[in-house]
Amino acid sequence: MNINITGRNVDVTPAIDSYVKTKLERIIRHFDNVTSINVILSVDKLQQKAEITLHLKGKDIHADSVEADLYAAIDTLIDKLDRQVLKHKEKLSNHAHESQKRQIVD
């Protein structure tokens, strides 16, 4: 799995890098079919923006967040992404159960 962290108009310090990777562990713990992760951190005037694209097997999940503080933007971004990943995982498990039910009924 590749994790790519890019900064636009902001330097990605080792502290920010480790903070993002620590937060991403929560996502990876929920869903282990992650092939790559692209994180873009940017600063526009007084707004700190964090974007992420999670490449899964068969699907890409994108989330973004804008806050006054970069760390707060990362936190809300991870919360949004976590909800999306759990929803995707639930859909996958529901489809698997439906196919098993069809085999039993047929």
User: How many beta-strand elements?
Assistant: 4
Broad CATH class: Alpha Beta
- Rg result: 17 Å
Q: pLDDT below 50 for ≥5 consecutive residues: which ranges? A: none
User: CATH superfamily, called what?
Assistant: Ribosome hibernation promotion factor-like
Strand-residue proportion = 25-35%
What is the total number of structural domains?
A: 1
CATH T-level fold name: Double Stranded RNA Binding Domain
What is the N-to-C succession of helices and strands?
A: EHEEEH
- Sheet with the most strands? 4 strands, mixed
Q: List the total number of helices.
A: 2
The mean pLDDT is 86
Q: What gap, in angstroms, lies between the N and C termini?
A: 40 Å
Order of strands, widest sheet: 1-2-3-4
Chain-wise SSE layout:
Blueprint: E1 2-8, H1 14-30, E2 34-44, E3 47-56, E4 59-67, H2 70-105
Helix pairs in contact: 1-2
Give an overview in words.
The chain has a 4-stranded mixed sheet with strand order 1-2-3-4, with helices on one face. The mean pLDDT is 86. It has helices at residues 14-30, 70-105, and strands at residues 2-8, 34-44, 47-56, 59-67. The N and C termini lie far apart (40 Å). It has a single domain, classed as Ribosome hibernation promotion factor-like (Double Stranded RNA Binding Domain, 2-Layer Sandwich), CATH 3.30.160. The protein contains 2 helices and 4 strands. The chain has 106 residues and is α+β, with helices and mostly antiparallel strands. It is elongated and about 50 Å long.
